[in-house]
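Structure tokens please, single chain.
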Amino acid sequence: MLTSKSKWLYLIILSPIVLFWLILWQYAVNVPWFDDIDAFPETVAIWIRSNNWLERLTLLFRPNNEHRMFLGRLAAVLSYEFTGKLNIRSLILVSNIQLMGIVFLFWKTFARQNLAPIYFLPALLFLLQPQYHLTSVWAITGWQHISVLFWGFLTVYLLSQTNYQAFGGAVITMFITTFSMSNGLLFWFAGGILLALQQRFKLLFAWIAFMVIAIWLYFHGFDNSANGAGLDYLKAHPEESFFGFFTFLGGAFDFMPDIEIVKRAIVPTFMGFITVGILVFLIFKIFFKHSIQKWTKVEDRDTLFIVGCLLFVLLNAGIIALLRPRFGYFVMLVGNYKIYPALFLSLLYLLISSYGKTSTKFLNSLLLFSIFFSVVSYAKYLPEVSTRKKNLLVCGFNQKYNHIGLAAEVNSLFAQRTEEILTFLTSRNAYEFPVWLNESLILRPFDSTNQTMPIEIDKSTPATVSIINNSFTGSQNGLNGAYILLKSNLRTYLIPTQSNPYMGRNPFKSSVGFRTTIPAKLIQMGDYEIGVYTKNQDQEQVFQTKQTVHIDF
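Here you go.
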């Protein structure tokens, strides 16, 4: 029986998981965004149109940009087959169940360390936070990054065991890992190193044979020429790859994402050097202790699991640092990669806690630091998560009524293909755009209302049109706030706004008014009346502005 104190203790430990899922439930939306289109709507559309099972099976393994993502495509197809619909929100939620699988593996490892359960809390606080919301609440990145991490870590866990059944399971999970995302191939190398450390050389040779087969299957008919440009850039700018490795690993300390990249990268890069230094020290101590014997004891196998997972994270950081700087150094800190530095911190903490000479006082310090880290992460990044949800829903509305919004620019090939795919799915009732506002109210002509709201139009450059209001006092939290309406005889566009910058010193006081910039590349050319739609919970209103704008760029 758990005592009352124990119950409270476990509730505290579980609180990061509960909070993380509340965030997912609140902010995951049923709207496909850019790369989602290829991976999910198009997959389901082709699946529906095809009666050839070989073609359908081949579809699941078809490359998506630089990756194959068998699990993600399979999840989309199963969503359609079992419910008759493609639901992007459900795909997001299901992808995160795999993240809970990682948490379970971490807990199994920690539970054998004979430490108080409260000391597992930092591992959760470092991992379960909103910095990587572009993975946790974006369908395609969830089914790529989270999938490859769970199945890869499960593979490492099975390899850290010492029986043949576990090795057979590891081969199966490794093939799943391989076809979840291209960086899953790195787990073959991490797994080989683990087997070498265990001195299981016969199994190592078998592992290498399976690896050759998997790599051949993965790259068969695969265009991988884009990475050549990355290597050319590396030769010209080797320093960016060197520092990029540490910037990437220290990305969990990216708390100033709005400043220019050189200044922004200072703290993450510094923390990358510090954390990698700590890791090197611990690895040296561990390998000095185990330089002769095999890793066969339970506690040693747990350490080997942590080291194997860290080895993958380091290999992945190296590949990113080598091939991605050509897109801009900001990629080292891009949001959909942030799950890797979060995992790096969590794994490093587990390695520290498993090190026998770690004092309780030091663990208490890390516990307090992890709480501070989590609070700052939520305070800084949760508003971004909320804004992204609003923007996605707005884009979904524009796609539904204007055939543009979820992909590329007006009249582009990608935009045309997106419209064709979504029109097909909606005509088959296989996909439904979310309804989150009074659409009939927004679609009415402006002369149906007598209410007016003043705005200013700032056309500072030929390609930029800004709309500013200095009197609106409503809340802009969540989906509430003011939205600009652009209306012509054929179209009605919805554009989100943001509050005017607050120039005062009172942190609890909000600014008056709003502003926005018209996303011209998502608007068809023409003359538009400007209106304002406001939402405050269930209270929705439309205002005239008595002004027009001409879009010609």
